[in-house]
Design a protein that fits this description.
- Helix content is 38%, strand content 36%.
- The protein is α+β, with helices and mostly antiparallel strands.
- The protein has one domain: Alpha-Beta Plaits.
- Strands 2-3-1-4 form a four-stranded antiparallel beta sheet.
- Strand 2 and strand 3 form a beta hairpin.
- Helix 1 runs antiparallel to helix 3 (70-79).
- The protein starts with a strand and ends with a strand.
Length: 96
């Protein structure tokens, strides 16, 4: 399983609209991509401007499809100005 984590630091004035938009992006990814298995949106309880994503895909090819999807490209274009910092990590989930 291919895992992506993303830590966003959002400009304070854009936090609420980002939170609404990222939830829509999560729903779109889960509904429209058969190889997107998890898309968890987490918020830092001590800093409202930090949003953390945990996403799992069947493999890297599935993630590449995600990055080229219409819904992702639209999301990315809309929210980029709202983002102060974005840290993306790619991981491989180990089977138990």
């Amino acid at each position: 399983m291919f895992v992506i984590t993303v830590k966003f630091v959002i400009h304070e004035k854009d936090t609420e609209k980002f939170k609404v938009r990222i939830l829509q992006q999560a729903r779109d990814s889960l509904e429209l991509e058969k190889d997107c298995h998890e898309f968890d949106v987490c918020h830092d309880p001590n800093n409202k401007n930090i949003v953390f994503l945990y996403e799992t895909y069947t493999d890297k090819d599935a993630f590449d499809i995600h990055l080229n999807s219409k819904h992702y490209l639209s999301f990315n274009e809309e929210v980029t100005p709202w983002v102060k910092e974005k840290i993306v990590t790619q991981l491989e989930k180990q089977a138990l």
